From TrEMBL:
Pfam families: Aminotran_3
Family indicated by similarity: Belongs to the class-III pyridoxal-phosphate-dependent aminotransferase family.
Keyword Transferase: yes
MF term (GO), any: transaminase activity
Superkingdom to which the source organism belongs: Bacteria
Name of the protein this chain belongs to: 4-aminobutyrate aminotransferase
Entry annotated with the keyword Lyase: no
Organism the protein comes from: Gluconacetobacter sacchari DSM 12717
Cofactor(s) the record lists: pyridoxal 5'-phosphate
Keyword list, A-Z: Aminotransferase, Pyridoxal phosphate, Transferase
Gene3D superfamilies, per the entry: Aspartate Aminotransferase, domain 1, Type I PLP-dependent aspartate aminotransferase-like (Major domain)
Length: 450
């Protein structure tokens, strides 16, 4: 296997050199896309997928062919959810304006969501609205740097926190040619498949302490530790729970703040805890959220303790033209209502357990399945060359991702070697949907083995 680092999205990307392999219509559309949108965009899958509409956990191509979507966490309450669509359309027909006017819906949404965070944020926290998770993380990091008077940011080794100048500099998963910020430090992935779980908590705390020491040694210090609590870009690690609480204590004792990046793990994705960090028993200083918040409509936010934001609020003016606009809040409120009314956190717990149990059964037949991880409807299945060496097999993972696409199942891959299958469907995914995923994966593995 190669040791050259490539982003998982590059490994699972269409190669433009293979345009000649496509049918004339698809080739023409991709050539137009490349000409009009430029070279930085990527397409998934060796055989790119053209989608025309969606419904629940399904996407449909231009010919009406159905694909089971086991990848898109943005449409958390299902593609084209009728309640969310009606809320967006109804609000757009009445008013679409910014937060500098007094409006009841934004206050109602804040009152609805703040109690879900628990701890200090539930007691007296504030919430600030942005358009994207990148903006939310950018704002949170700026607040942390203002609060502490320092620049240091500690992240995990394969983190992804956004695509603004500041957050891209905290996102090593973008690839080796994407530079990290000068005061950004990395700690290793808490790899529960290869590291002893009984010593992982003190080991991880020690890794963070070393990076704080390094920041101070170089004349700065820690402003923030920011972490995705499901470690999604690192390879999806859910255990041991309790990993993050002592890290938060350490970071605060050294003058920094703890930011829980819940763009991936939040809104019931990881099960009944609703927020991924609550599985770890941590009480964050700030929580950032995005992607699934509006079921596809661009809305995101930062929840922040009042003592953390007080100085920033006095010294800095914050305004976002579209962040928290009336239509975005309507989308967010409808999404939150559906999550609660339809008990989708509980569904994520139940169906996620069903998927992991299914892959555990498959592992008895296919030892290339090295590890099965995750919480709720965030599932990681690590592919290896053999279970003894635990050598990552990114090439096999790519064959599975593309092979499932050919069988009308959509997933992706993640981790340093892009060898972990990433399964994170809309939260309306059913056990019947899960069985279709498992059956097709088994049939594909049989075909690959033959």
């Amino acid at each position: 296997m190669t040791s050259v680092k490539q982003p998982a999205t590059m490994v699972n990307a269409f190669d433009p050199a293979r345009l000649g392999d496509l049918d004339a219509e698809t080739r023409g559309m991709i050539e137009r896309r490349m000409r009009l949108l430029g070279p930085a965009y990527r397409l998934f899958y060796e055989q790119p997928l053209r989608v025309e509409r969606g419904s629940g956990p399904f996407l449909y191509d231009q010919n009406g062919v159905e694909y089971l979507d086991a990848y898109n966490n943005v449409a958390s309450v299902g593609h084209a959810n009728p309640r969310v669509a009606a809320a967006i359309a109804g609000q757009a027909a009445r008013l679409a304006t910014h937060t500098r006017y007094v409006q009841e819906p934004i206050l109602r949404y804040a009152e609805s969501i703040l109690p879900s965070f628990g701890g200090r944020l539930a007691e007296d926290g504030h919430i600030m609205f942005t358009c994207t998770g990148s903006e939310a993380n950018d704002l949170a990091l700026r607040i942390a740097q203002h609060r502490t008077g320092r620049d240091g940011i500690i992240i995990t080794s394969e983190a992804y926190h956004g695509n603004s100048q500041l957050t891209a500099g905290c996102s090593p998963s973008l690839g080796r040619r994407a530079p990290l910020g000068p005061w950004v430090r990395q700690v290793p992935t808490p790899d529960s498949y290869r590291l002893p779980r009984e010593t992982m908590v003190p080991w991880f705390v020690e890794q963070v302490a070393r990076q704080i020491d390094d920041l101070e040694r170089h004349g700065n210090g820690i402003a923030a530790f920011i972490c995705d609590s499901i470690f999604s870009s690192d390879g999806i690690y859910d255990d041991p729970v309790g990993l993050l609480a002592p890290v938060a204590d350490l970071v605060r004792s050294r003058g920094g703040v703890f930011i829980a990046d819940e763009v991936q793990a939040g809104f019931g994705r990881t099960g009944t805890a609703f927020w991924g960090y609550r599985r770890h028993g941590v009480d964050p200083d700030m929580v950032t959220m995005g992607k699934p918040m509006g079921n596809g409509f661009p809305v995101a936010a930062v929840a922040v303790r009042p003592d953390i934001i007080a100085g920033f609020g006095c010294d800095m003016r914050y305004f976002n033209t579209f962040g928290g606009n009336a239509v975005a809040i309507a989308a967010a409120q409808a999404t939150l209502d559906v999550l609660r009314d339809d008990a989708l956190s509980e569904n994520a717990e139940r169906v996620g357990n069903h998927i992991r149990a299914g892959f555990a059964r498959l592992r008895h037949r296919f030892p290339v399945i090295g590890d099965i991880r995750g919480a709720g409807l965030y599932v990681g299945v690590e592919m290896v060359t053999d279970p003894a060496s635990r050598q990552p097999d990114g090439a096999l993972a790519a064959r599975i991702v593309n092979g499932l696409r050919d069988r009308h199942i959509l997933i992706s891959a993640t981790g340093f070697h892009a060898n972990t299958l990433k399964i994170r469907p809309p939260l309306v995914f059913t056990t019947e949907n899960a069985d279709r995923l498992l059956d097709q994966t088994e049939a594909l593995l049989d075909a690959l083995a033959g």
